[in-house]
Amino acid sequence: MRNAGLIVLSVLAFAPALAAQGTGPQNATLKRALDAYNNLNLPQSITLTQQALGQRLSADDQERAYVLLGSAYSNQPDGFDKAINAFKQVLLIRPERTLDPNRTPTKTMVAFNMALSTMLLVRGLSVDSSAFVVGQGAVPIHFTVTSPARVRVRAVSAKTSVTIDSSVQNGTVSLRWPATLPSGDPLPAGDYTLVVDAAADQNTFSAAQRVRVAAGNVDTLPHLTEMPGYAKLPATEIPQRSWRPMGVAFLYAGIAGAGTLALENSQLGSANRRELSLVAVGVLATGVVMMLKKPAPVPAQGNILYNRLLDEQLIRRNADIAQGNVALRRQVRLTVTPIPAGK
Amino acid sequence: MKPALVGLALAAVAGPLAAQKVNVGVQGVFADYRELGPALSYNGGGLAGMAELNWHKFSGDFQVAKINFNPSSGSAATDKFTSTQFDAHLRWFLASGISLETGYTKRSISPDFTTQNFTAIRAGVRANYGLGPGANLLLRGNYLAAAKFSGGGTAPFALELGLGISVGAGSGRWRITGDYEFQRIDRKTSVKVPIQQALARVGAAIGLGR
């Protein structure tokens, strides 16, 4: 009685998951089987599903039928193996099929996972969009192998076939594909199909994903016109106002005046010194004016040396950039994007 | 006539030398001349011309001045005279504005024997100080050697002192000049016959070949 209650609860919980598999079955028998399942009449649901499978069903209805059958069997006392077989059929029809673990009864989930582990499948093959310079990056490729197998990954186009990886894998696999030919040259632009072949004993499975490879030039660096973070300093500076011009003018005029006084011959009487006064006044006035005048800019040697150093650094940096650009112009930038199925 | 010829010669020389930093100018001259004693003193004025050449560490200038002297007030002198003075300075730059200077000076008097014709060789030092862009001060002192006079005699002690100012464009294209020159010449014949001259030149100059 207790087991029957649990089944009821688990089936009720699973019902929305079945209903969520699309718009609903097209086949009338399958619809009745689903109704029986929803009414917890699992034996009748199994019978009707098997009848439906004997009829002509679309692929979607076939998948729905086997999911319904697996779900129903997994909740029957002796139906676990049959449930596994039903889920195997589901995976053969649609290898990417998953069940929501939050909405699926544990028994059903276990049966589904058992089916997965006994089959060789490559699921979840995906390629991340990426853009990189050849030799400095790679395309991430992810997929899952459901059981241990020799896995060979290739990129195939009409003209080229390049092996990306060949190794024994199991579980989640992540690869990084440099998108180069065996010679190391970049892969020619175009559409490619990434094919994952898994083989174990007699079992084989293949999955494919189409990608588009576009080639372009690598961006070059612009030349610098100034050093980032460093500004040139003024080549001239205005010195502080100084009393020196007036001092020197007084000194020179004083020496000339004192010299004249000292050299004057007393035998010749006292001179009127008109000539000395005339020039001395001019000298002193010039000294005062030059002292008061805003000093003229003078070369700032420190700044000039600093600017020269900046210029030399700038020349060096631009030479490095030019050299780097030569190398960059030889490089190829690849952009790899997955092409959605059906396009 | 002679000073005019010398002036023309200076102007003629200035042209070809223009590429070597040449300044030429004209000046007004004021002078005070004394000889023998207080009773023989003159004041005068006139015109002067100059040409200056700078070449590497060497520089030189030539000046010609024509001054009309009149007896000064209180002087016992009665005759006026004209003095034509030619000066040459040649300099060799040492360092820090200091130059060694040599040169020649000649003073011709007209009419003859009013005062003394005079020639001498000068040797001394000149200091040049830049007050600022386009403004220069100069101070010079020279010994006047080998002095000769039209009336004979010697001058074992003869000195010359100079003060100058020039103010103008920083490029040197033009400038206003002022020069003061004081000469003391202790001339001796059988007696002491000292000579003293103070001279001021104020004028303008233009620079060529800069």
Features:
heterodimer, A: 343 residues, alpha+beta, Serine Threonine Protein Phosphatase 5, Tetratricopeptide repeat, Immunoglobulin-like, 3 domains, two-stranded antiparallel sheet, 9 helices, rod-shaped, disordered N terminus, B: 210 residues, mainly beta, Lipocalin, 10-stranded antiparallel β-barrel, 1 helix, 10 strands, globular
DSSP strand content of chain B: over 45%
Range of helix content of chain B: under 10%
Radius of gyration of chain B: 17 Å
Task: Please state the structural category of chain B.
Answer: mainly beta
SSE sequence of chain A, one letter per element: HHHHHHEEEEEEEHHEHE
Q: From the helix content, strand content and strand pairing of chain A, which structural class follows? A: alpha+beta
Largest interface: A-B, 32 and 42 residues
CATH architecture of chain B: Beta Barrel
- CATH class identity of the largest domain in chain A: Mainly Alpha
The run of helices and strands of chain B is HEEEEEEEEEE
Task: Provide the number of structural domains of chain A.
Answer: 3
Give the assembly state of these chains. Answer: heterodimer
The main β sheet of chain B shows up as: 10 strands, antiparallel, barrel
Query: CATH H level of chain B: which superfamily?
Result: OPCA outer membrane adhesin/invasin
Largest sheet of chain A: 7 strands, antiparallel
Give the averaged pLDDT of chain A, no decimals. Answer: 88
In DSSP terms, counting alpha (H) and pi (I) runs of 4 or more, how many helices of chain A? 9
Number of strands of chain A: 9
Unreliable spans of chain B are: 13-19
Strand arrangement, largest sheet of chain B? 1-2-3-4-5-6-7-8-9-10
Q: What is the number of E strands of chain B?
A: 10
